[in-house]
Design a protein that fits this description.
alpha/beta
């Protein structure tokens, strides 16, 4: 095949089919043909049939137009008058890049990089946060809220499929018309489990973690649409006086930066919650988040609108106060994230500089890249902002 990587893949596949002897490669071809020229280029220039070559494709692709022009396949000029000269140039590049690749690999560092006490903690953290019963409970609520049908098949396996009442997008656009809010869900449903052990034993069952595409779409369904972003509730709360009106706000502190900077390591999207009383004090520390469903009173929409209109001036002041508090919290988050990022990247740059004095495998480009990344990351953190995500007016009766 006209690709070093694909050629190597086919050789390797042959070598894996239980061979007990050295694999001998026979390549039938016509002399003076394109296949013959390609064989010579692969064999004499890239040594592709002698040993694995990790950099062969990176040499092949830039020189392919030259090869095609030399053979008349492409209407262009070629720098190399003959195939032998192209092969000689390829062989020189191949030896040079293989040497660079070898120098860039520190086998002693690889052997000593694994720290079991650190990796064990990471593995345990992954297992603890991959979902489990908490994820299953959330998805069951999501399925119920948006009209999907789910059934327990036993042994930790469930099936979810579109229901007759499933919420759909209508007339949003020609592309999305009548599409499900769960694009990953086929008509006949999906079998899933939140148990890693079950998923490993059952190839026909999808493994749900918080990063599964269908789970991500369930989360986006809630966070990306305006439904529920503003609401009002009347409750009877033993700790609050009758007639008290509170405003609960959820701001999200965000650092919008290119993914390559991995700014989430230092400032992930963070919810900032405030519960503002009429005297503009923040009661959030004394009043933890609650859906208050068990305390909710059934009040008609007309009555709610009248209460809202009568408290509008005060509510605007409370919203302004909530924004001021969230901005102050953002400043604290930004300062902390900036210090962590600066300290870690400065330390890493200094480590590379020290290592470069004794190890030629550390290139100046790596240090320069780290410095540039640090500058861009700090600038991104400094430009972080808050976004008002949700407002709830709570009336105590």
């Amino acid at each position: 095949p006209p690709s070093p990587d694909l050629t190597e893949q086919r050789i390797g596949r042959l070598d894996r089919i239980g061979q007990t002897e050295t694999v001998k490669i026979h390549i039938p071809l016509l002399e003076a043909s394109v296949s013959h020229a390609l064989f010579r280029w692969f064999h004499e220039g890239l040594q592709l049939f002698e040993a694995p070559n990790a950099i062969a494709q990176s040499i092949f692709e830039p020189l392919l137009p030259e090869f095609e022009a030399l053979l008349g396949i492409r209407d262009a000029t070629c720098r190399f008058p003959t195939l032998d000269e192209l092969i000689a140039h390829t062989r020189e590049l191949n030896q040079q890049k293989l040497a660079e690749l070898h120098r860039g690999r520190d086998r002693l560092l690889e052997l000593n990089s694994h720290r079991p006490h650190i990796s064990a903690g990471l593995v345990e953290d992954i297992r603890h946060n991959e979902g489990g019963e908490e994820l299953l409970a959330y998805m069951e609520k999501s399925f119920d809220a948006f009209g999907l049908e789910s059934d327990d098949l036993g042994d930790g396996v469930f099936v979810v499929k579109p229901g007759d009442t499933m919420v759909r997008n209508f007339a949003v656009s020609l592309e999305t018309q009548d599409h499900y809010h769960y694009p990953e869900l086929p008509e006949d449903g999906v079998r899933f489990t939140c148990s890693r052990e079950t998923a490993l034993a059952r190839e026909d069952v999808a493994f749900f973690t918080w990063e599964n595409p269908l789970v991500q779409q369930a989360l986006d369904r809630v966070t990306a649409e305006p439904l529920g972003n503003s609401t009002m509730i009347v409750i009877r709360h033993p700790g609050l006086k009758t007639g008290t009106v509170l405003m609960e706000t959820l701001y999200v502190a965000e650092c919008l930066a290119p993914r390559a900077l991995m700014a989430d390591r230092y400032l992930p999207p963070t919810v900032l919650r405030q519960v503002i009383a009429p005297n503009l004090l923040n009661l959030a520390p004394q009043l933890p988040f609650d859906d208050f469903e068990s305390l909710r009173l059934d009040i008609g929409a007309d009555a709610l609108h009248k209460i809202l209109d009568s408290q509008l001036i005060g509510l605007k002041k409370m919203l302004e106060k909530a924004g001021t508090l969230a901005t102050a919290e953002l400043g604290t988050l930004v300062q902390s994230a900036r210090e962590r990022a600066d300290r870690q990247l400065q330390h890493e740059a200094q480590r590379l500089r020290s290592l470069a004095r004794t190890n030629e495998a550390v290139r100046p480009e790596e240090i320069a890249y780290l410095e540039t990344t640090r500058e861009q990351l700090l600038a991104a953190i400094d430009s972080s902002d808050i976004r008002l995500d949700a407002v709830r007016v709570i009336v105590c009766a």
